[in-house]
Amino acid sequence: MKKQILTTLAFGLAVIVLLGGIKYMQFRAAIAQASANAMPPETVTTIMAGRSSWPESYSSIGTLAASRGVTLKAEEAGVVRQIFFESGQAVEAQQPLIELDVSVEEADLKGALAALERTRKDFERSRKLIDNKAISQSEFERSQTQLSEAQAAVESLRAKIARKKIVAPFGGKTGIRMVNVGQYLSAGDDLVPLYTLDPLFLNFSLPQRAVKDIAAGLAVKVTVDVFPDQEFDGKVTTVNPQINEVTRNLEIQATVPNPDGRLRPGMFSRVTVLLPKINEYVTIPSSSVYHLPYADTVFVVENSKDPSGKEFKTVRQQVVKLGPRRGNQAAIIEGLTPGEEVVTSGAFKLRPNVPIVVRNDLAPANDPAPQPMDS
Hints:
Helix 2 (about 105-130) runs antiparallel to helix 3. About 25% of the residues lie in helices and about 45% in strands. The chain is an alpha+beta fold. The chain folds into 4 domains: about 40-55 and about 280-360, conserved putative lor/sdh protein from methanococcus maripaludis s2 fold (Beta Barrel); about 60-65 and about 195-280, Beta Barrel (Elongation Factor Tu (Ef-tu), domain 3), CATH 2.40.30.170; about 75-100 and about 165-190, CATH 2.40.50.100; about 100-160, Helix hairpin bin (Helix Hairpins, Orthogonal Bundle). A 6-stranded antiparallel barrel has the order 2-9-12-11-10-13. Strands 6-5-3-8 form a 4-stranded antiparallel beta sheet. A hairpin with a 5-residue loop joins strand 15 and strand 16 (about 310-325).
């Protein structure tokens, strides 16, 4: 009986050892299979965090305006006799532009001059006679008044003739001519626009909190969509002393040199006012920042080793404190040091310690002053 029990126990123990061996082999095979089916590394782009000097600034949008601009109008009615310019022509100050017919006024002027000469002679005779007391004082004063009236009539006709000769009040560039030779004009009819294109004014506004920082003389950088790769320099020339009661904005005007005439009045512009203070920041592309409900983070690239000792790149998630933004770049106030390599794209598919492969030929833009292109 005892022998039978021992045989049974030995058989049971053998079965347990056999099953354990089988299970062990199965576990080893599963581990090997899992190792063989490991997820491939994630492809990302990276950049080295750098240090940049950023001047404090305010950004806004504005509109370019001519420093001097008018639409010339006819001051007197008449028929256009001569035109001395072409549309779009550059003209000098006091250059003749349009002349109306003045034949009637010139004829009237001849008569007025003759009348003036006659009344002057009468006045000279009256003055001699009054000296000899041959006429009364009232007669002398009457001749004096007639002379003044004759002189005023001549001056009036000369002024009327002058008003029919339109000249450029200042140097600039003409617009599209609105009249033709032989056309009858009424007083007040439009003739031609005239603009001074160098320099131009840039009118824009900033929130009232900028009033403590903005003053005449500050440098501005101006960009327009027409020339996306060029910045134009200017200076703040006027700051409105009153805050707009409706918008609570500060109205500002800058002057922008335009010697080549590339800028035109009415253009939509983006303007940056540069303040004297310079700040040092650690900067990275804005695409590097991964926004979470509790914090802003970046993925920092690190070197690691697998169990076999083979090196590979991985990432750790780092909480950062953001500063100002400038174009495609973001400033980091805390949490990152210059020289650390951070992920710039592909962060949405990462988690700490995931292996990565760097492909920087796909890197996103990192421009402090990007220029959007029209689609």
